[in-house]
From TrEMBL:
Protein name per UniProt: Helix-turn-helix domain-containing protein
Organism taxonomic ancestry: Bacteria, Bacillati, Actinomycetota, Actinomycetes, Kitasatosporales
GO MF, any single term: DNA binding
Xref: Pfam families: DUF5753, HTH_31
Top-level taxon in the UniProt lineage: Bacteria
The HTH cro/C1-type domain, residue ranges: 18-70
Organism: Streptomyces taklimakanensis
Length: 283
């Protein structure tokens, strides 16, 4: 079987974690390849996510690396055995891979935390609101891709329709709620929908008001996805120039610290609803 040309972020993450275990053991890719009856190239393909690997081989490699974290190894085996073809695969070749990776990340997350300064979290955007944002992309996108992006963004909400919906905490700066993307009618409709979202059982929305004297820690859009074990948490940074997935221990610790420092900054959920209603009334 030829190597994958474009491994998903989840496939690449499995390979990256196996590489971390190997490097921590002090073993070379050539030595690991010999264990599997192959060579250095085989391990390189596995560690880049370009080749799949079975749970049995994950356990063999982990033992060879003297890796003792059984919970992490079990979680890696689950990823290795997962052959899920999610709904997002329908958009492969239509949308950039980062869109598919975000949907896959959210689908598998144990919990999600979002930090937004200038827009409502994508997963909670109305069709008109998200369409306006995509229409403003530079250079302009073809109408068909705008339509696909809007549809894809709405379908991500499937994680809240499961028997056990994914816990999601959104921290949004008041600035995002005051923006009139698409005009007052679009903005009002978006805030009405966000107000509805605040009542969803697995969702918590809290607003950082303009009156806050604390810096909220990031001017970028941040999505923190909890993994099956903390070592497999992922941070997604989103900007006008693209998305970046972070998973290094130091990076994860940094954003855990950011969220911890933010704990007391946003308004309570009740005060957040009151503020959203007031902004709607002011429109």
């Amino acid at each position: 079987m030829p190597p994958r040309s474009s491994p998903t972020a989840r496939q690449a993450r499995l390979g990256a974690e196996l590489r971390k275990l190997r490097e921590a053991s002090g073993l070379t890719a050539r030595e690991a390849g010999e264990l599997l009856g192959g060579n250095q190239a085989q391990i390189s393909h596995i560690e880049s996510g370009r080749w799949g690997v079975s749970a049995e081989r994950v356990r063999r490699l982990a033992a060879f690396y003297s890796a003792g974290d059984q919970q992490l190894i079990d979680a890696l085996c689950e990823i290795a055995e997962d052959r899920t073809k999610g709904w997002w695969e329908e958009y492969r070749g239509i949308l950039p891979p980062s869109f598919l990776n975000v949907a896959e990340l959210e689908y598998h997350a144990a919990y999600l935390r979002s930090l937004q300064t200038l827009t409502v979290p994508g997963i909670f955007q109305t069709e008109d609101y998200s369409r306006k944002l995509f229409e403003e992309v530079i250079p302009p996108l073809p109408r068909s891709e705008v339509d696909a992006r809007v549809e894809h963004r709405a379908r991500r909400r499937v994680i809240f329709e499961r028997d056990q919906p994914t816990p999601f905490e959104a921290i949004i700066h008041e600035a995002a709620l005051r923006m009139h993307y698409g005009g007052r009618k679009v903005a009002r409709s978006q805030l009405d929908y966000l107000l509805e979202v605040t009542e969803w059982p697995s969702v918590t929305v809290r607003v950082v008001p303009f009156t806050s004297e604390r810096f909220i820690g990031s001017s970028q859009s941040v999505l923190y996805a909890g993994g099956p074990v903390p070592q497999l948490d992922t941070v997604l940074l989103d900007s006008a120039y693209g998305s970046a997935f972070l998973d290094a221990h130091a990076q994860l610790d940094k954003y855990r610290a950011v969220y911890s420092a933010l704990e007391e900054v946003p308004l309570s959920t009740d005060k957040t609803r009151t503020m959203i209603r007031k902004i709607i009334k002011d429109l």
